Amino acid sequence: MSDTSLVRLAGVSKGFVKGKDAITIFERLDLAIPQGDFVAVMGPSGSGKSTLLNLLGGIDRPDSGEIHIAGSRIDTLSEGQLSQWRAATIGFVFQFYNLMPMLTAAQNVELPLLLTRLGKAERRTHVETALKIVNLADRAKHYPREMSGGQQQRVAIARAIVSDPELLLCDEPTGDLDRASADEILGMLTILNRDLGKTIVMVTHDPAAARYASRTLHLDKGHFEEKELAA
Amino acid sequence: MNDFLLVRKNLFRKKLRAILMIVSILIAFAIFGVLAAFERAFNAGEDVSEADRLVVVNKINFTQPLPIAYFNRIAAVEGVRQVTFANWFGGYYQDPKNFVIVMAVEPETYLKVTGTDFAFTPEMTQAFVRNRTGTLVGRALAEKWGWKVGDRIPISSSIFSQKNGTHTWDVTIVGIFDKNKPQADTNLMFIQYPYFDETRSFGKDTIGWLVLKTASSAVNDQVIKTIDQMFANSSWETATDTEKAFNKAFVAQLGNIALIVTLVVGAAFVTILMIVGNTMVMAIRERTREIAVLKTLGFSGARVLRLVLGETLLLAVIGGTLGLGLATLATLLMRQSLSMFVPGLRMSPEIVLTAVGFMILLGLATGLVPALNAFRLKIVEAMGRG
Amino acid sequence: MLKQIVAVTAINLKSIPRRFWLSLSTVVAVALVVMVLLSFLAMSAGFRRTLASSGAADVAIVLRAGARAELNSVIARDQVRLLEDAPGVARDAQGKPLASAELYLVVDGIKKTTGTKANLPLRGIGESGAAIRKGIRLTEGRMFAPGSNEVVVGKSLLREFQGFELGRTVKFGTALWTVVGVFEADGSVFESEIWADLPVVQSLFNRPNTFQILRARLSGPDGLAAMKAFNDGDPRLKLDVKSEQDYFSEQSSQTSDLIQKLGWPLAIAMAFGAMAGALNTMYSSVASRSVEIATLRAIGFGGFPAFVGTLVESLLLAGIGGVIGAVATWLIFDGFSASTLGASFTQVVFSFRLTPALIGQGVALALIVGLIGGLLPAIRAARMPIVQGLQG
Question: Which segments constitute the MacB-like periplasmic core domain (chain C) (predicted)?
């Protein structure tokens, strides 16, 4: 495998027990995603899309196999180490935005910076930059309830990129949005990928969304089926 | 923004709920503050007492008299630095309902022995010693009746009468004294024992009790033993004790005040512990998803635990501080009207410190379960992403 | 409408287990409030009953003017003689006046529960001292023999203080006394006393010819007035003559009022705390049932049933708390024996008494907490916009 891979899964197995049945999701799965890639992961419900994202984000652990991301082997890290690693390396974007309702847009974006050593002034600059990137500089003082779904998701993206992580993990980022808002969000992700060089893994079941990615992985019964798309 | 802001925003996201919790904490601390102030006031005698002061009373009971001759005999005991005596007068002013604490005291020595409690100036000491019908009145008592130095006041006794049949003695105020210790109470007055003894119709040459100062508290036991043995098997046996032990035993006669205070405060705290504890568990449960998001962003379990504990601590400190404030106000308001019954009612630094301790304990106790829940929360399960 | 109310209320009550811990905390909070209130009221009632049963209307008590308490009073021998023959004083079959001049002294005893010194009353009584009082009955032993240093003790005193068992010797000063009898006195304050023969007390306590009070059985309803008139008319007397009943009720009111004045504000303050808890519980209840309430409203139920249902839930929780509090107080404190310093500077032993009327007051307080705690959430339930509720 190439050393330029940002993400590398080797022989990863994962299953869970439901009642009396042991259900296998992945069996000895291998995957490599190079630095700067924009990958869409598609597949039917229960195919393991979300589990894959959880494993990549270090919020779930494989039963066996190795996961290397940005030079760290994360499947052997402790919970505390994982937290630190996540704060530094991963940016999450969720389907339902998951903003803190009692915080303003700027404060929501600032949240991950509390985990860094940055001072107050530096944090403010970072937040302003991130909000500018998502075109929401004028909404800094607004609360989530005062914003549309698309705007909230842009805040969530700003939150995901504010600490300058190498890998963005997006879980159905447009699943709760209308077409226009969805296109806006996807355009933004493209820019992040192309101009800022962010590696993005996006789970979606919307083919229109997947078209924004440089390639799509189809996950079915724990196996990948790659389809290269024209950029 | 910092963690404190996050904690504050979390606490007040449901304003009504936060306010209701603060109110219940406030009340528990107000109850604690007032009752603790009462208890301290009841035990003020113990606080005012000094380690090298002993009290000698009749062994049968302290209301029984002792012969005046004991004054000189005890003064001669080795280890006794200074001795004085007093007699309870059973005083009232104008109407038996207007109970006044009056003590007939040996003028010269009494002011010396109690000089650390009260601020007797040299002038008033001299005036009191020289003037047979003079009286020294405490500031609080003087203010209560509007008495001034030079006033001639009739003080009646519900126990004694004069040889001419009257129950009333006329005395002239030669000084109004303040206190030297915050716990001391100036709701009392002193008259001259010689004047009282010569004029009363019965009980001549007997005294109520003696107070003495030892050379040092180290010889207390020796002095106590010597005095009690000296009078053993006489018709007036004595019981000598430290002033502190004597005052403590006296307060204990009212009933187990400390126990009542403990029970009531305990009940109040158990109540808020249940209310606040359960409400916080519920509040954190409602926020399960948000906590999962925080953890996804990279907040560690320990940090999330601290955020939740910070919230309950903040709650306890706000409610507790307001409650203590209310208690302070209440004691100030009650101070005047209850001055006869519980003199020296006040919010002492010790009570405040104890309350702060309770706030921290309460904050930790109510936050423990929800904080641990948040700490243990698994992101995958919480987000329904299993 | 009634059907609707019943249906909604049933849904409310069935959903309580979902909020088990929160509901329980309301119940416990209310129970503790009621316990605090009732224990103070029971203490106050017990103390008042002890003193109330001490005073007889047909016994007069004579004290030095302005003395207010037996301990402070002093009466001269001549005054005693005059009063014994006063009009209004009843006489026995032999024509002797039913009057008892008494000496009231304080002696030290040790309280069993705390091991601390306590003031106990030692009363030197005259020949007819026991006969004047109502309901005096020896439960053990016999009466002291005149002229001997023997004592009889009240059964409350025996229960609360060390070393007064029948046959024991007690030492007051240098004198030794033997306990020869135990008496009861209708639960009155006399049961907290030690009685001995007056002349013996006078001599052993160095109080020759000293008297403090005189008690006399009155000859009839006009007896007191006759005695008073006689007293006021003789310049050698000028004493305070009152019925024993009045004397004790004056004393009881001070202490029992004080206990009540402590108990009610404490209970009310705590009730506010519990009310905050109840409000919280009920708001949560309404919030957690918002979908159900909105669904019912959407299919045609009115707002009033939602209001009643919420209020009933709140009243039920508080009511259960009130009953638990009352039962717990009754189990723990009813009959609980305690003692405090009475007006005569001596220990008065009394038992906590939880009467049905007091229990009523406790439960009423609980229901008030439930009513107020449920009212605002009930209004919210009734006014909840259907659409918003359906969204959960």
Answer: 24-207
With contact defined as 3+ CB pairs under 8 Å, the chains touching C are B
Is residue A217 in a domain? yes
Residues B90, B201 within the same domain:
yes
Contact call for residues B186 and B339 (beta carbons, < 8 A) = no
In-domain check, residue A11: no
Domain residue extents for chain C: 2-52+252-390, 76-238
Please give the pLDDT value at position B130.
Answer: 94
Q: With an 8 Å CB cutoff and a minimum of 3 pairs, decide whether chains C and A touch.
A: no
pLDDT tops 50 at residue A125: yes
| Chain B touched by A90 (CB under 8 Å) | yes
Give residue A41's pLDDT. 93
Whether B306 contacts chain A with CB within 8 A? no
Measure the CA–CA gap between C243 and C227, rounded to whole angstroms.
11
A107 — contact with chain B (CB < 8 Å)?
yes
User: Does the ipTM exceed 0.90?
Assistant: no
Please tell me whether residues B12 and B121 are part of one structural domain.
no
Torsion of CA B253, B259, B265, B267, to 10 degrees: -130
pLDDT tens readout for residues B42-88:
887 777 888 899 999 999 898 899 999 999 999 999 999 999 999 99
Place of tokens 């403590």: B248
Half-sphere exposure of C145 (CA within 13 A, CB side): 3
| Partner-chain contact C280 B202, CB within 8 Å | no
- DSSP designation for C111: B
Tell me the three state secondary structure of residue A33: strand
Q: Is residue B111 part of a domain?
A: yes
Domain with A130, as residue range(s), is 36-65+72-228
Is A128 part of a structural domain of the chain? yes
The model's confidence at residue B385, banded by pLDDT at 50, 70 and 90, is: very low
What is the nearest CA distance from B381 to chain A, expressed in angstroms?
10
Q: Total structural domains in chain B? A: 2
Q: Hey, what amino acid is at B108?
A: E
Q: Is residue A221 part of a domain?
A: yes
Chain segment C183-237, per-residue pLDDT in tens: 999 889 999 999 999 999 999 888 888 899 999 999 988 999 999 999 999 888 8
C341-355, pLDDT tens digit by residue? 887 888 989 899 999
pLDDT of B249 above 90: no
Sequence-separated (6 or more) residues with CB below 8 Å from residue C173: B58, B59, B60, B64, B235, B236, B237, C204, C205
Which of A47, A55, A98, A109 would best serve as a mutation to test chain B binding (most B beta carbons within 10 A)? A98
Q: Which chain A residues are Cβ-neighbours of B295 within 8 angstroms?
A: 59, 83
- Predicted confidence (pLDDT) per residue in B276-291, tens digit: 888 888 888 888 889 9
Q: Where are the alpha helices (DSSP H) in chain B?
A: 3-11, 15-42, 44-48, 70-75, 107-113, 122-130, 139-145, 193-199, 220-230, 243-252, 257-286, 288-297, 301-337, 349-376, 379-382
- Residue B323 belongs to domain spanning: 3-44+255-382
Count CB pairs under 8 A between chains B and C.
Answer: 151
Domains in chain A, number: 1
Q: Looking at the structure, do residues B230 and B308 belong to the same domain, yes or no?
A: no
Please answer yes or no on whether B301 and A57 come within 8 Å at the CB atom: no
Grade residue A228 by pLDDT with cuts at 50, 70 and 90: low
Is there a domain that residue B369 lies in? yes
Final residue before a domain boundary, out of B208, B236, B264 = B236
User: Is B295 within the bounds of a domain?
Assistant: yes
Residue at B250 is within a domain: no
CATH code, domain carrying A189: 3.40.50.300
Q: A with B: 3 or more CB pairs under 8 Å?
A: yes
Taking the CA of residue B157 and the nearest CA in chain C, the distance in Å comes to 8
Q: How confident is the model at residue B147 (pLDDT cuts 50, 70, 90)?
A: very high
Same domain, B329 and B361: yes
**Whether pLDDT at A117 is above 50:** yes
pLDDT at A2 over 50: no
The angle subtended at Cα C233 by Cα C227 and Cα C235, nearest 5°, is 115
**Chain A residues with CB-CB distance to B290 below 8 A:** 98, 100
